[in-house]
Amino acid sequence: MNSTDLAGAIKDLARRAGFLAAGIAPAGPVAQATRLHAWLERGYCADMDFMRRNLAQRCCPAELVRGARSVICLAASYAPPPGADRDGMVARYARGADYHKVLKRRSAALVQAIRAIEPGFLGRAFVDSGPVMERSLAAAAGLGWTGRNGCVFVDGAGSYCVLAEIVCNLPLPADSPQPGRCGDCRACVAACPTGALHDDGLVDARRCISYLTIEHRGTIDPSLWPRMGVRLFGCDACQAVCPHNRDLPAGDSELAGAAPLGGAGLVEVFTWPEAHWRQATAGSATRRATHEMFLRNAILAAGNSGDASLAAPLRAIQGSAPHWAELAGWALARLSGEADNPFDASTTPSV
Questions:
Q1: Of the residues 201, 233, 244, 340, which has the maximum number of CB atoms within 10 A of its CB?
Q2: Which one, of 247, 236, 229, lies nearest residue 347 by Cα?
Q3: Residue 340 is among the residues annotated as catalytic for this protein
Q4: Residue 302 structural domain
C-alpha cells in the first residue's frame, strides 16, 4: 500500500474508532511554534510553569518520539444539542465521560487497527498529555483552523472538540492547513467576562475563567471576582457567541453525558464532604480541580448568582472554612447589594 492510500485507510480506521475527523501533520518543527514563544514571553501561562519545560519536544514532535515521521491528529465532538445551554455552571466538555480516558481508549484501538494493516507501524498516542502542541498540530494537519478565541474549529464540531495525536514512524503525506475564518468578527473577544482574549488568538490565562477555576489553586485576584459569573468549572462564553458554533449537529453521546455533577446545584456543593464530591465527579474531567477549588468556585458563583437563599450556606462557610472567610464575606455583601458591580442576570450563564 502506498503512503497516500495508507493515509486514507488510517483516516477511515479513525472514523471507525469513534473520531469525527483525522488529518496528518509532519513530525518536524511545528509551524505555529512562534505563537507558543510569544504566549510564554507575555506571561500568559500564569502559574503553568510546566509549559516552559521541554520546549524542544513541544515545538518538534520528532524530538519527542524517536524515529517519528508523521503525526496523526484526531478530533471528537462534544457540541451541545440544539436548544441546550451553551455556557453553564460546568464547561460543556466536562459534562460527559472524561475525554482523556475516552480518547485514549479510542486511540489505543486505532493503534492496533493500524498495526494490523501495517505491521511495521510504531506510534505513541497523546491525549492532552506530554509536551505536545495539540491545537497547532491539528491546524497543521488540516483538521481545522485556529480561531480568535485560541480554539481549533473543526467542521461538524466548531470549537466544541477535543483532540488526540499519534506520533508515529510512518512517512505519511501531510494534509494542507485550512485558512482562518474569523475575518473581522470579535464576538468572542467582546464576550469574554474577564478580558482574557485578544485579537491575535493568544489567551491570557491570568484572566481566563477556565484556567482560574480548573488549574489555579489558592486565591483568585479580587478584581476578577465580580466577573466570574456562576461558574464552578470552566467557561464557554467565547464559544457560546461564536457564529461558527451555531447549528452544529449534536456531539458524541459518550462525551455529552448526563447532567454535570449529578444535577447538583450550588447549595449541594457547599455542603458536600469530600467523599460526596468524589462520587459526583467520578469518571469526569471535573476531577481536574480539587474539592477545595470547587468550594472556592462555589463561593464566587454564589456571590454572583443573585440568589439570596445562598446567604445561609455562605455564613456557614465563614465558620467552617476560615481561609475562605474573606471571599464568603464578599459574596454575602454582593448578594445584599453592598459590594461593587451588582448582579446582572443578562451576563450570568444559566446553572
A1: 233
A2: 229
A3: no
A4: 258-344
Number of domains within the chain: 2
Q: Tell whether 262 and 159 lie within a shared domain.
A: no
Judge if pTM exceeds 0.70.
Answer: yes
Q: Assess whether 281 and 157 both reside in one domain.
A: no
- The answer as to whether 253 is a domain residue is no
Residue 342 main-chain phi, psi, to 5 deg: -55, 155
Residue 148 CB contacts under 8 Å (≥ 6 apart), including other chains? 182, 185, 186, 188, 189, 197, 199, 200, 201
Select from 148, 168, 188 the last residue of a domain.
168
Give Cα 20 to chain centroid, integer Å. 17
Among residues 49, 87, 98, 128, the one annotated as catalytic is 128
Q: Tell me the pLDDT tens digit for each residue of 84-137.
A: 877 889 999 999 999 999 999 999 999 999 999 999 999 999 999 899 999 999
| Cα–Cα dist 314/325, whole Å | 9
